């Protein structure tokens, strides 16, 4: 096949086209020599830092410096002085620093309510707030809800009426959501003395129960509402 105009062969016809007068006298030896010299040139340029993307310009992969802070958290009536990474959530401080594992880590995204605790009497998702932001507030976890329970149950303390109602009505199966359900109910009953099924379902809708214990939870909250008599109050 003849070369096209200008002496250039198409890729499909290279083998069979005739060498044009415009093409250099290209040989296998010349080709190998030029390849080796280009490789050496690039290597030398990289060594001198003249080529973009060379090791000298590669972005640093070292971890960013961790910033810590000294904080004081008031949890279940006790002050705790802690040194924490600024990015630590309240949930992680409660569970990992203070050993209060009642608040559960479900989604860690603010969607399930398993991590609910009370801050100043209001229910919050502890996975969604930094511990440093909760200084000066009174935090209540499920461990601090009853009276005189000390470090655990069965030490002569008293369960909160909402806790008792959950037991009485069998308002749980696996129990993973239960601390969040109970604290959410306590906050609800702090301002609602005559709840209806609808108002309970509406208020508690932020706390999911994968076991589907909802009917018994509603009954437990209604029962607790008849018994709290101000007992439900938690520190604000
Ligand atoms: S773990 Fe916090 S909302 Fe799910
Ligand atoms: S009791 Fe199992 S998730 Fe609610």
List the helices and strands and how they pair.
Elements: H1 28-47, E1 68-75, E2 78-85, H2 90-97, E3 116-119, E4 122-125, E5 138-140, H3 161-168, H4 178-189, H5 197-204, H6 214-227
Helix pairs in contact: 3-6
Question: How is this structure best summarized?
Answer:
This protein has 236 residues and is α+β, with helices and mostly antiparallel strands. It is built from six helices and five strands.
Describe this structure in words.
This protein is an alpha+beta fold. The protein contains six helices and five strands, in the order H-E-E-H-E-E-E-H-H-H-H. It has a five-stranded mixed beta sheet with strand order 2-1-5-3-4, with helices on both faces. 30% of the residues are buried. The N terminus is likely disordered. The structure holds FE2/S2 (inorganic) cluster (2 copies). One FE2/S2 (inorganic) cluster binds next to loops.
**Net shape:** elongated
Q: CA-to-CA gap between the ends?
A: 92 Å
Write down the secondary-structure element order. HEEHEEEHHHH
Largest sheet: 5 strands, mixed
State mean pLDDT (0 to 100 scale): 82
Strand order of the biggest β-sheet: 2-1-5-3-4
> What structural class do the secondary elements suggest?
alpha+beta
Which fold name corresponds to the CATH topology of the domain at 68-108 and 125-144?
Ubiquitin-like (UB roll)
- The share of residues in helices is 25-40%
* DSSP strand count: 5
CATH superfamily of the domain at 68-108 and 125-144: Beta-grasp domain
Small molecules bound: FE2/S2 (inorganic) cluster
- Spans of at least 5 consecutive residues with low confidence: 1-22, 150-154
Counted by DSSP, the helix tally is 6
CATH class of the domain at 68-108 and 125-144: Alpha Beta
Our Rg estimate from Cα atoms comes to: 35 Å
């Amino acid at each position: 096949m003849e070369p096209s105009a200008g002496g250039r062969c198409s890729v499909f016809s290279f083998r069979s086209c005739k060498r044009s007068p415009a093409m250099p006298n290209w040989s296998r030896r010349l080709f190998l020599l030029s390849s080796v010299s280009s490789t050496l040139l690039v290597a030398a340029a990289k060594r001198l830092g003249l080529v973009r993307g060379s090791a000298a310009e590669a972005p640093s992969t070292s971890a960013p410096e961790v910033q810590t802070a000294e904080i004081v958290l008031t949890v279940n009536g006790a002050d705790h002085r802690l040194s924490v990474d600024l990015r630590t959530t309240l949930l992680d401080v409660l569970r990992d620093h203070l050993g209060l594992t009642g608040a559960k880590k479900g989604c860690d995204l603010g969607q399930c309510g398993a991590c609910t605790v009370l801050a100043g009497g209001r229910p919050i998702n502890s996975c969604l707030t930094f511990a440093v932001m909760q200084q000066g507030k009174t935090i209540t976890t499920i461990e601090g809800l009853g009276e005189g329970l000390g470090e655990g149950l069965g030490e002569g303390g008293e369960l909160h009426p909402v806790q008792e109602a959950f037991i009485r009505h069998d308002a749980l199966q696996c129990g993973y959501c239960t601390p969040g359900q109970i604290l959410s109910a306590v906050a609800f009953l702090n301002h609602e003395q005559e709840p209806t099924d609808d108002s309970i379902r509406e208020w508690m809708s932020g706390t999911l129960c994968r076991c589907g214990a909802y009917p018994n939870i509603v009954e437990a909250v209604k029962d607790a509402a008849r018994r709290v008599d101000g007992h439900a109050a938690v520190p604000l």
